[in-house]
């Protein structure tokens, strides 16, 4: 196994400089830090655990914040997974470190250092935003660190990736089928972000249900959302201005559905009498709004628990094959659809 002295010799810096870099000391010039970390990664340097020291898993969160005042909202959604990851990791003898990337897909120099020096043994990627997860994946692969995602892997990624995810396509299909079964002939879909694979899968499933029941382009409309409540509010305002209420609305997540429903209600639109609404996620708030929101349930605890357990198995048995698990997305029927 390579030592700090080996890294110093190959990178052409002093042993003391390598030591400071490996200990995360802020006084080292950034260019030297990059050089040392790249050398460490090339040599396959690994952190040596002390006796009785717990191993570490990293939780890498990709949900972006479109504005500063929405950072907390994004973090709260990520927390739906994090508690189960934490409990499972502790049970299996691991502790956690957390990292949040930027919308542009940049990661901090501290995370680069942790990956290059293998400060954690495995990682869980939470979220499905293209630029961010791609950066995480490329760095983890370069550092030879096993990882699991909590969403399906992109089809254009070269290497097969392990994941445990909810079946977003099936969930979108169920949402569409439910609205159609209740007689909806004109349906609006509030889209999630265009750089979210979860949102794109939900849209595809929804459109498949519409296609199977003969609903063409003239019967389906879209509003570009961003997974935040104000997007649903804006969608409702535009519908009211045009005086063009659809029979049903399927929102790509609960917060947009709730924002849309509340705004419509404030202006005298009755839910579900005038318009039926379906969300996606089944966050706690979905059962407390009035009427209760019909939605597609993500089994947050199960997704996080299974991913953490499978990651630990992969760490402890490196020859294990790529693992792919899709969990069912259940339709939770409440009063917002009148059923």
Features:
single chain; 339 residues; alpha/beta; Rossmann fold; 2 domains; 6-stranded mixed beta sheet; 11 helices; 43% helix
List the helices and strands and how they pair.
Blueprint: H1 4-11, H2 15-22, H3 30-43, E1 55-61, H4 71-91, E2 94-100, H5 109-116, E3 122-126, H6 130-142, E4 147-149, E5 162-166, H7 168-181, E6 187-191, H8 197-212, E7 220-224, H9 229-242, E8 248-251, H10 254-266, E9 276-281, E10 294-297, H11 300-316, E11 324-327, E12 330-332
Parallel strand pairs: 1-2, 1-3, 3-4, 4-5, 5-11, 6-7, 6-8, 8-9, 9-10
Antiparallel strand pairs: 10-12
Helix pairs in contact: 1-2, 1-3, 2-3, 3-5, 4-11, 7-8, 9-10
Structure description:
This protein is of the alpha/beta class and 339 residues long. It folds into two domains: 4-166 and 302-327, Rossmann fold, CATH 3.40.50.2300; 168-298 and 331-337, Response regulator (Rossmann fold), CATH 3.40.50. It has eleven helices and twelve strands. The longest helix has 21 residues, at 71-91. It is elongated. The relative contact order is 0.12.
